[in-house]
Amino acid sequence: MSLTPFHLAIQVRHLAEARAFYGEKLGFPEGRSSEQWIDFNMFGHQLVTHHNPQLGKDGSVRGTSNHVDGHGVPVPHFGVVLTFEEWERFADKARSVIDEFIIEPYVRFQGQVGEQGTLFFADPSGNALEFKGFRDIEHELFAK
């Protein structure tokens, strides 16, 4: 499977807060930036945080959730698919820097086709992120 990097632009309430969270806390290298946006290298993908001063009264992006595997999965959400080993390392890092998970790191669909490590948390603006890991991405990512 030959993949190219994705580009995702999201809204945030404060760029300094986004820089501290994505850059300092999660360790994603910063790329180009301006007074309105910041590029981050998210495992080789381009995540762009755009300042939106008109987010909700509490400064958060609005969302909902759907029931999956006994958990309320936030919608919308985004993230990266990793190898299982990369996911385990990232989960360990996340446990040390994330104060509150939406869904704690665990293995979903254990023993089934599509078994995956997963975890969910939100950035300070309320954008929900999921990081998942597969032992065999090529054969499991879209398996039925």
TrEMBL record:
InterPro entries, alphabetized: Glyas_Bleomycin-R_OHBP_Dase, Glyas_Fos-R_dOase_dom, VOC_core
Ranges of residues in domain VOC: 4-134
Gene3D superfamilies: 2,3-Dihydroxybiphenyl 1,2-Dioxygenase, domain 1 (3.10.180.10)
Name the record gives this protein: Glyoxalase
Species this chain originates from: Marinobacter nanhaiticus D15-8W
